[in-house]
Design brief:
two-stranded antiparallel ribbon; Ribonucleotide Reductase, subunit A; disordered N terminus; about 60% helix; binds fe (ii) ion
Length: about 290
């Protein structure tokens, strides 16, 4: 991991929308992540939030497309395409979660309701919700790839490839919403821009973690795992081993640094290291020329 010039995306950054499909015909076990109900519940809770969440990301960034310089416009276009493909794949993934016997309708309904409320706020406030959540997806993606994808040990090859693909693209476009915010607020004093983005990030962070925990516990309850036992097991998964929240704690806090930029750390080497693992093996031999 190297350092980029502070405050900007790398000049040679390429954002590549990869129109891939994963595991459509796969019949996964109920506990698809290594037979572990807790790891499965956490990732199911994340996946349940993605389609509506990413649709909101697209809306809130695309709204400012005409107000930013051409280079950022092009990045927004690639960001939109990547998030649209992610939405499509997670819709399919979520259908398989339902097919495995989980009822995720209540979770999806609450997320949809909270987004109805979010859409009534100022467009820049909405953009900042996206900037905040994009920081979460980028640091989760970084941690996942930096640990060699071990949190998906025990998942099928296609499932692992799908989450790896998503992680790669979240890293690629991690600066797009942030740079859009910085451009549209360029007339504000730096201290004010910092205060606004930090305040929104704190609130979004609290809600994001609290809601995903609530949703994971609701899914575990459908497995008959309830009460203190469910809470203790989930807490250990998030904060102990593997500690998917613990792993991102410092990267989370970096957002509060005045002058922070998502590309302060250039982690494109992680993309290169995992890129070859995401393309599903071809099932058909190309016809002879
Ligand atoms: Fe995404
Ligand atoms: Fe994203």
């Amino acid at each position: 991991m190297g350092s980029a010039a502070s405050g900007v995306a790398p000049a040679d950054l390429v954002i590549t929308p990869r129109n891939l499909r994963f595991g459509r015909d796969e019949v996964r076990g109920r506990w698809w992540l290594g037979g572990d109900p807790v790891a499965t519940a956490w990732h199911n809770a994340l996946s349940a939030s993605f389609p509506d969440g990413e649709t909101f990301f697209i809306e809130t960034v695309r709204r400012f497309r005409d107000a930013v310089p051409p280079q950022l416009q092009a990045q927004i276009d690639d960001f939109v395409r990547q998030e649209a493909y992610h939405t499509r794949e997670h819709v399919a993934f979520n259908r398989q979660i339902s097919d495995a016997g989980y009822d995720i309708a209540a979770i999806e309904q609450r997320i949809a309701q909270s987004l109805v409320l979010a859409r009534t706020t100022h467009p820049v406030a909405q953009l900042l919700v996206t900037v905040s959540l994009e920081h979460f997806t980028a640091i989760f993606a970084h941690a996942m790839l930096a640990h060699g994808g071990r949190q998906f040990d025990g998942a099928s090859a296609d499932t692992r490839a799908m989450w790896t693909w998503h992680a790669i693209e979240e890293i690629e476009h991690k600066g797009v919403a942030f740079d859009t915010y910085m451009h549209v607020t360029r007339s504000l004093k730096p201290a004010k821009r910092w205060a606004i983005r930090s305040a929104v990030f704190l609130r979004v962070s609290r809600n994001f973690v609290a809601n995903r925990v609530k949703d994971a516990l609701a899914l575990l309850a459908q497995d008959g795992i309830t009460g203190w036992r469910a809470k203790a097991r989930l807490a250990w998964y998030l904060l102990g081993a593997p500690g998917v929240l613990r792993q991102v704690a410092w990267a989370w806090a970096a957002y509060f640094r005045p002058g922070f930029h998502p590309w302060d750390h250039d982690d494109r080497a992680l993309i290169a290291a995992h890129e070859t693992t995401v393309t599903p093996a071809p099932t058909l031999t190309p016809a002879a020329a």
